[in-house]
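Pasting two entries for a bug report.
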Amino acid sequence: MLAAVGTALAVAVTLHALLRKRRVSVAVAWVGLAWLSPIFGSVLYLMFGINRVTRRARRLRTKPSEALEAPSLEDATVPHTLWPLDRAVRRITGLPALVGNRVALFRNGDEAYPAMLAAIAEARTSLVLTSYIFRDDPTGRLFGAALSEARARGVAVRVIIDGIGGGYFRAKAYRRLSAAGVPAGLFMHSALPWRMPFLNLRNHKKLLIADGRVAFTGGVNISQPNRLATRPDHPIRDTHFRVEGPVVEQLMAAFASDWAFVDGEILDGPDWFPDLAPVGPTVARAVTSGPDADIMKIESVILHALNGARERVAIVTPYFLPDEVVMAALALAAERGVTVDVVIPRRSDHVFVDWATRAHVMPLLRSGVRIWLDEPPFDHSKALAIDGVWCFVGSANWDMRSFRLNFELNVELYDARMAEEIERFIRAKMETRLTEDDLRARHLPVRLRDAAVRLLLPYL
């Protein structure tokens, strides 16, 4: 009987994987596991291998451009050399790059939090907030009180906290907001064991929008360690951005899609989507990514940008475990003479990621990619700047989790001033270089440990 059940389960997994898995290696791995251990393998596939995520998202109010050829003179909002990239990202996202935006960079919670709290205090019609981590610590309570006060004065408030990052079993900040009457939801949260994707699929976005006009996005979560001035035990440096202008509508649409998924409510109307006039010189576009209809969009944008790089590429990321396709794009850029610099922490907040990274990057070093080790305290910043004219910022790390499993939000900026500011920030971290000799000098047990941990790459 067990043999018959096991065979039936293995057949079912095989059929499902053949029809649903895009990557051959992933399909082969699941099918092999199901046949080698039919019951155990099938249970794992049921819990982790099936993507149950579907969107009940509203249609974007910003209509996608149909101009997939080179822009006309009236439509040419980006430099001529970037037309191919603009065309590709339009096709990937279905969204146009919008002119007339203003972007400002903030370092750490010390700079970002006061600006965010001021925007909350000045809001008059609506407030939305998404955060992967929302701690019930002094910083979290400060934001909770500000959101509660906004609701008390008649502002429509909606909050999304990730079901894992917000504290899966306790979620104190969520409970505090709910007790105060603030409409809040936990993303991908369930206590039912057969709905296990909540362990592996996470909403990693960080987004605050006031009155549908002023947005904040980037890498900064809501927690006390981001306030370096308070001298926390485990400080976290980070980078966040204030965005104003027409692109805020695309950011608001991204939140509305997530809120419809979490709560079922459709956010629409002028309180959430006001008319937005140009306020600055930056051309910008939102790029969302996740294991649903947006799968691999951020990774695809990065690949197009790397393939079009002519002179230099500068990357800062807290975790660096990209897949073979991104690794190849970085290596090819370096081999054709592009200066490729990648800054990673010497020690991140996840030691397993550090181990896996050391086992992962040797091919890049051999291709001429320069990898730099940023000294503590840990920097959670993530940004990409190319040729001093284009940059890509937001919540996505350079790893397979962010590119394929997490729900992420990045913003594409055609802005030489901001690209130069990000490049300058990254260059300041280029002091200690990781070399091939450093990797070869690791003792055999260390190399074996690092290589073994690297096998968990999709889940780190």
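Entry 2 (this is the one that rendered wrong in the viewer):
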Amino acid sequence: MSASVKSYAAVDLGASSGRVMVGRVGPDSLELSEAHRFVNRPVRVPEGLRWDILSLYGGVLDGLRAAGQVDSVGIDSWAVDYGLLDADGALLGNPVHYRDPRTEGVAQKVWTTVPAPELYAATGLQYAPFNTLYQLVADRLSGAQRLLLIPDLLTYWLTGEQGTELTNASTTQLIDPRTRAWSYDIAERVGIDLELFAPLRQPGDPAGLLRPEVLEETGLRGPVPVTAVGSHDTASAVAAVPASGERFAYICTGTWSLAGLELDAPVLTEESQAANFTNELGLDGTVRYLRNIMGLWLLQECVRAWGDPDLGELLPAAAKVPALRSVVDAGDAMFLAPGRMPERIAEACRASGQPVPVSPAEVTRCILDSLALAHRKAVDDAQRLAGHPVDVVHVVGGGTRNALLCQLTADACGLPVVAGPTEAAALGNVLVQARVHGLVSDLAGGRELLTRTQPLTRYEPQGDSARWREAQARLAGD
């Protein structure tokens, strides 16, 4: 390998799987390969739904061993969840899963102290029942001396050093998106001690060196630095959107769909709150202005209920089902919990007076049409609320493998869709590490490198947009 090419391990943990990818970056090259992939399977115990964090950490160690010698390691994961440590730094039980029901009704209690409009104006975060703020209000924190968000917890185990990376901290509903610092006023009013959190880190900051025990476990030669990246996986994925200029929207697809814009400043208006848009922090002073949509979780749960049929057969069958026959609100909290997803989708269609999908192909088509419709509404609403028009929609993440969803999104939005890269979060993770070594200049430079080196597929809008307007009106009850 050329001395000018460096290797980076990107640990990328999603809600259903984890992976360790190796990015090899040179002045004019970017290659990504998979070292190790492992299942992220939550466990339901008597006290509720928990993450199997030790299994995940084992997967990380296995991945680093498979990756071989690297110049740096970075970790990104899903947001909002955390581990609690005692005074000796020991973990106080498995982290609670954000789909655990313990936060039901908590937001309404918080709003009696800090009304929802005031909370939004201060933090810019959308309402979601599992926001870290609500989890902390619901949690028993006795004995806890430190709180580490999931990527920071794994970084601590690798290095022995504690920190709180900013892009992920911005999902806690305890950060002011204007100052990019903690909102001490909000924390005090809801009774959260911000001393629980380790000091804030920025993407690109050093996060320590792999401990000797980790080097021995993985066979790596030290010193190997760990670099803070955009540790919220969506922050890393948006950093890897291969866009030029500013007139683009993005949709990060996977278990969730995160659809929105990259802005220079948050949008904190009452209209934005009513539309449930969030203002999360991205790289280089940017704001990720987006809406959470239930995403391919709907299909994942159905596939699980059907006994894991072959998607290579299911998706072509769904493509033959008449379009927009039935649609559901892909952002509805009724679909948040696991279990009985085909039945819940059927019930939603029945309740709205639409034809009830019966076969797996019909249910799948309902899901994909509904996701495309939700993508359309999010992109339209974001442009209107931010006063930020776009000419193209970039789809990144696992959903780029679903050509039917990408085409339906182009049709629904009435805009070209550029799909790729699939491993956007891992690539964004790698690019931040490469910037530390001067191999990438800035956010725009990384995106330009992605455009030249990664496979992308373009989908042009087809069909009559009036059908999508009618479906949206039907869903709204108009």
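Dev reply: Rendering is fixed now. As a check, the viewer should reflect this: The chain has a mean pLDDT of 96.
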